[in-house]
Amino acid sequence: MHFADFVAGSVGGALGVAVGYPLDTVKVRIQTQQKFTGVWHCFRSTCKTEGVYGFFKGMSVPLTTVSITSSVVFGTYRNCLQCLLQLHSGSPEAMPTKLDIFLSGLAGGVTQVLVMSPMDTVKVRLQCQMEPRQLSANQTLPKYRGPIHCMLTIGQEEGVLSLYRGAPALALRDGPSFATYFLTYSTLCEWLTPADQKQPAWPVVMLAGGLAGIFGWTVGTPMDVIKARLQVDGMGKRRYNSFLHCIAESVRQEGPGVFFKGLGLNCMRAFPVNMVVFIVYEQVASLLRTLP
């Protein structure tokens, strides 16, 4: 069991959240609220209504949980990879094939859903709850007063299983997305590292990590849209009866382009976030592996 990868993934994931959270909030609002005509409209509306604070709503949720989910992803990926190498090569130190990397990334992405789904639902609902900076006398308090209150309210009003409403879409997003993510990173590092050099240079790690994030989100954005819509369904009148109904209704009302809402923001956010994630992951993992 490679525990260094669990710890390194945890640290890298937490720092990645801090880098990309404001753009994540804008992306979620565009995907779930038709009143926004574009990125700039959402940005201006958020600034006007809520101020800069609005971009960081719900951030305490991923900060406290992403270290766990990122730890699960990187730890599962690395240990699955070692198991696959042991099975078909007889040595965990053998050179992995592209299929080994793809399958290990797929396993890491799907595994994290069990941990991530409830907290991701809370995060998305808090991000989509827009209220003015100062309430006037005739305005009521927001429905959710914080992460814990949001979770308890969802469980009380909609049932505990509602916290997992977007889980199928989340699994279909993160499985293929992380498979692509790790395969892209590994392939680029291999291409850009000289044959006589064991480890990729830091500029290579940063470039490969950033591009891996972009490719991963390109694959994952369609299901990210559906996931977000299912998660916020219930804040008001229920619109979707099921996962498939959400897909059908979204396409019927907005056309196939709905699956790519937020893709530009996802890619814009993905490069710096995953550049940070991989540079921190590689440094921490390298440090921990040298410890006795």
TrEMBL record:
Solcar repeats lie at residues 1-83, 99-191, 200-287. It is a multi-pass membrane protein. It is found in: Mitochondrion inner membrane. One of its GO terms (molecular function) is transmembrane transporter activity. GO terms for cellular component: mitochondrial inner membrane. Pfam families: Mito_carr (PF00153). The keyword Transmembrane applies. Belongs to the mitochondrial carrier (TC 2.A.29) family. This is Uncharacterized protein. The lineage of its organism: Eukaryota, Metazoa, Chordata, Craniata, Vertebrata.
